[in-house]
Amino acid sequence: MFNDFQITEGRPVYIQLKEYLKRMITNGHLIEHQKLPSTRELSSLLSISRNTVLTAYADLEQEGLIYAVKGKGNFVSHVETFKSPSIQLNWSEKVNEKTFLAEELDLMKHRVRWNKEMISFTSIAPDEKLFDVENFKRAFLNRLSIEGDIVLNYGYAKGYKPLIDYLLHYMEIKGVDTRNKDILITNGFTEGMDIILSSFNKKSGRVLCENPTNDSALKLFRLNGFEIDGIDMEDDGINVQKLKSCLANKEYDFAYFIPSYHNPTGIVTSSQKRKEIMDLFSDYQVPIIENGFNEELRYSGSHLASLASFAGQSNNVIYISSFSKILFPGLRIGWILADKELIYYLESMKRARTIHTSTLDQAVLYQYLNDGYFEKYLKKAKSVYKKKYELTVQACKKYIPYKRMTGDGGLHLFIELVNHIDSRELLKKCTERGVVFLPGNVFHTDNSGNHTLRLGFSRLSEKEIIQGIQIIGDTIKNHYGG
Amino acid sequence: MFNDFQITEGRPVYIQLKEYLKRMITNGHLIEHQKLPSTRELSSLLSISRNTVLTAYADLEQEGLIYAVKGKGNFVSHVETFKSPSIQLNWSEKVNEKTFLAEELDLMKHRVRWNKEMISFTSIAPDEKLFDVENFKRAFLNRLSIEGDIVLNYGYAKGYKPLIDYLLHYMEIKGVDTRNKDILITNGFTEGMDIILSSFNKKSGRVLCENPTNDSALKLFRLNGFEIDGIDMEDDGINVQKLKSCLANKEYDFAYFIPSYHNPTGIVTSSQKRKEIMDLFSDYQVPIIENGFNEELRYSGSHLASLASFAGQSNNVIYISSFSKILFPGLRIGWILADKELIYYLESMKRARTIHTSTLDQAVLYQYLNDGYFEKYLKKAKSVYKKKYELTVQACKKYIPYKRMTGDGGLHLFIELVNHIDSRELLKKCTERGVVFLPGNVFHTDNSGNHTLRLGFSRLSEKEIIQGIQIIGDTIKNHYGG
After folding, report:
1. Same domain for A270 and A330?
2. At B106, is the secondary structure helix, strand, or coil?
3. Which of A142, A375, B134, B329 is the most exposed place for a label (fewest CB within 10 A)?
4. Locate the HTH gntR-type domain: which residues (chains A, B) (predicted)?
5. ipTM of the complex
6. How many Å apart are CA A370 and CA A326, to the nearest integer?
7. Which phi and psi (to 5°) does residue B228 adopt?
């Protein structure tokens, strides 16, 4: 007994001893009225200080796990170790269709497995090597010294007030008319989207969006029971003629657009098309959900206003965004900017579902933004990503036989292969050679896109980018001819 | 022009200037080809350094908002300021019944308004004055120096591995058999509960719980469309006879219990009753959701095993908990311990809804727990809260004419008033005298509890506790007789 007690570094030894003994008591390995070794004995047996044993015993006594008898030592208290008759429920019978669907649509679970030695173009998360950890620490310490106690206690469902104010200002600077608008802070873009979708009345039960579109939105449309009509993308944005004919022929509860660095195609919707879209939607009075995805990662070109900005005083655009893809995705902070009345309702849904988003994360992000670290970081990130972007474009031009390649910036390119090469088949072959990417079909609304793929380059080195694309090109050559 | 430019402290001036100009450009106050003041002029006009203006101009140029003409100066670029025809959607027509219900059940929006000068017994959040901000900072810096880049990037839906392992160990120490169990980290108890409820198959569509029970669970039952059967509480826990007869007579999808420091009654379910409950549920094969609420805040008495512990190898208990009510609610971290297969499904729902819980929060909490700060803090918190608890009990005995008072620890007491005094009516009168509390009806499953109230004392000073309870007692005397 006691000889399996092992000390882990970095955790107070008295706690480890206490937990070790507590476990033996709650498991029934030490039984009621059993005498524990004296503090002297145990300290010598385990080669730890007697004080450590004393503290552990005192804590155990305080928790009612042992009792002391003066002059006699410490004994184990009565602890219930009864276990109820063993039953095994079949949990897969207890979960509903929506949950099965969530599992089925869970790309992380079902995509090709890869390991760290491989070159992976699957991610469009920022490169953590770029992270500005030092200034993040500074922002943290700064905020905590200002109001550490408040930051660590409950906050409000709508969000942390200084961050809300900052973001309202941030949107105003971009030309958005924020009068009669409000902001709800969410656990990233995903929660924002899910709250909106689960709050919407289904009149037609139908949503209009770009085809392809980002997989997490697609998943949420499906999980929330919406039918999806996807409209294909031209090089300057959605096909407006088709959009018009959809709106003219069917009812829609809302439309969903990603005008800036569309995911997955990387296409930036032109100013002209943005205007046409906004005019159309004013006519049809259909609400728009705009995903502000990576608007900040524009490497060149003139300023482009968001749909929320074109909307002016209209209240038909719900703008969702986050800095996750640029700054710190680990923080899970996004926001919804929308009509005040709508935010009022969404706030109650947010409160019911998660009470509020981490005040700590919001407060530190606020401080980081306010102190100007974001601006500095963005410049650095842009220059690094721009270089990787250009390199990826060049390498694709050189090695990959594509029918179409799109991507005007951001952290990924989208490719349509020649000769209807199936990208899932290609992926299998590339995986064997140590390269993975995302086949484009997962982004499509209509089971198409079988010969497309998305290449995320943000987390790869320049060497890996070239090598990886070379391997993809090589694999195509070997299996499908040159 | 430019004379409304005002500098806010704590934010780099070049960013403020850039944003000021950007706003004027996107708003159309500065128009295409308009010449900007020279850097020299503007620096002198605004009394800021010329370098500041140079940096702001360079940034604006980089963003495509201005252009430089050599030898002539800086000019405003073409920026689209078109606004689509103004339309106003009626958002209240677009949100669904569930959202209206969430708004209706949103206690934060509809409860009595109070201000900071008043004495509020409404909260059962921890007292932020107790917060151990210094050690929290230490844990943060410690973790960030170990793996700052990882902590700030995307994590996994299931949670941060070191925290999951810590919590599995934590539950084992409490006597829980964790074989074939797993953990999902959630945004606090609330998200955990909501994910479970929205994942369950509704066979009977009915849930069994204690009456009263905590309002956030009640709200989620209702929002997820469950019928609720509440069973009243005896001083040692739920009325087991009634529980038995319910199970014998109706089908239930699951039961929900708060055996430790039941919210709102503060009752601790006895070991004997826990065994009886577990035996019953083994017979009926109905799953149990156990809320581990404040198990840690036991001020006295012997060790009590959780239902999850009594379950042994059975897989019928879903245990949800969080340290929010003790440690840092601002962090929003909770966990679900349950059968491995169930967690596998819930993980996909979690990923679909919020991707994952803040890695930063999880990592810092892990470090704080692992370094032993939690143990130390808990001792301090217990001694402070115990004193407040005893004081509240004494004051209630002295001043409030109650029929029943319950609360064996934790951060609140529950009172049933004599003579069927309506607690909502009493609340109105007390509010006028500067004291607020939560009327107990909001916790009841069946519109009863009109003469009950919950007194949360955690965030009040000893003086406020006595004064507040005196005022409640006084008000009762004045309006309902002594």
Report:
1. yes
2. coil
3. B134
4. 11-79
5. 0.96
6. 16
7. -120, 125
